[in-house]
Amino acid sequence: MTKPTIGFIGLGLMGGAMVGRLQDQGYDLTVLGNRDRTQLDAALARGAAEASNGKAVAESSDIVMLCMGTSDHVESRMRGEDGILAGLRPGAIVIDFGTSLPGSTRTLGEETAAAGGTYLDAPLGRTPSHAKDGLLNIMCSGDKAAFDKVQPVLKDLGENVFHLGALGSGHTIKLINNFFGMTVANAMAEAFAMADVAGVDRKQMYDVMAAGPLHSGMMDFVKGYGVDGDPNQLAFAIKNAAKDVGYYAQMAQDAGVDSVMSKCALSALSEARDTGRADDMVSQMVDFYAAKFGK
Q1: Cα–Cα distance for residue pair 127/265, rounded to 1 Å
Q2: How many Cα atoms sit within 13 Å of 37 on the Cβ side?
Q3: Sign of CA pseudo-dihedral 178, 180, 186, 191
Q4: What is the per-residue pLDDT across 57-84, written as a single tens digit (0 to 9) for each?
Q5: Which string of DSSP letters, residue by residue, matches 59-117?
Q6: Which of 32, 48, 63, 270 is the most exposed place for a label (fewest CB within 10 A)?
Q7: What percent of the chain is predicted at pLDDT more than 70?
Q8: 3-state SS class at 119
Q9: CA 200 to chain centre
Q10: C-alpha to C-alpha distance for 190 and 292, rounded to whole angstroms
Q11: How far is CA 74 from CA 54, 67, 85, 180, 188, in A?
Q12: Pairing mode, if any, of strands 93-96 and 124-125?
């Protein structure tokens, strides 16, 4: 069977790895990047075509994929005279792989349907190294017929591909997931800093905690920096964590409730971001708490 043509917008570390994987699997791609051309030029060297705007990407693609940082970024690429919606082919499918606000996702779904296409949200789990090997976790939601149509492509990108129901469900679950993960990570980071304050050994404290039911992968990621000095076991920047927890709080507010547990993590991540730690990894929040405690 003929493979669908794919347009891909957002070639950062994750997007670039996904494009490389799609090229490995024999897909023809049209790509659109932003300021850093590193991943874009690598894709072009392997035969991808470069588009000048979202409209041109859509005009040449059966499936348009977005891997961008914020809902505002996605909305700006979708709308306007040079946007994806202006060039969408009849029956085309748009997939948002980023972590976006569910309300924005549902609105864009309506606009895409009005333009003759279908919009799916499909946020990702795992890392760019997993993406290179087609081992992502993909949390897709939206129209089931459209999902069934693109599922073979998603399976070329992901080891675990879920369909989670109505449009926006994927982004909702991803935000809950990231809220939980970042709250645990911040608690563990403070625990290491508090060990310094209390005069106990970080590794001994970790060994005791890890021997009981508190043990988790997130605990190990933070220990990777707090004890072993490696910040990249949790390769997720503080600025991105602050964005995701902020989106979670906004999602709660949009639903008419006030999140209690997100407040502390969001406050700490935002302060760290705004005081020069934006590009540090989340595990390096250990240093943020240690500095606050004067250690």
Answers
A1: 22
A2: 4
A3: negative
A4: 999 999 999 999 899 999 999 999 999 9
A5: HT-SEEEE--SSHHHHHHHHSSTTSHHHHPPTT-EEEE-S---HHHHHHHHHHHHHTT-
A6: 270
A7: 100
A8: strand
A9: 36
A10: 10
A11: 10, 8, 12, 24, 33
A12: unpaired
pLDDT of residue 219: 97
pLDDT at position 35 is: 78
Show the beta-strand stretches assigned E in 97-198.
118-121, 124-125, 136-140, 158-163
Terminal C-alpha separation, the chain: 62
Enter the tokens of residue 63: 């499936």
Summarised one tens digit per residue, pLDDT across range 85-110 is: 999 999 999 999 999 999 999 999 99
For residue 165, give the 3-state DSSP assignment.
coil
**Residue 5 structure tokens:** 């043509």
Structure tokens belonging to residue 285 = 């929040």
Asked if the model's pLDDT at residue 1 lies above 70, the reply is no
Tokens encoding 23: 């090229």
pLDDT tens-digit readout, 235-281: 899 999 999 999 999 999 999 999 999 999 999 999 999 999 999 99
Instruction: Return d(Cα 73, Cα 75) in angstroms, integer.
Output: 6
In the numeric block, which tokens belong to residue 38? 């590193």
Half-sphere exposure of 208 (CA within 13 A, CB side): 8
Question: What would the pLDDT profile of 20-42 be if each residue is shown by its tens digit?
Answer: 999 999 999 999 987 789 999 99
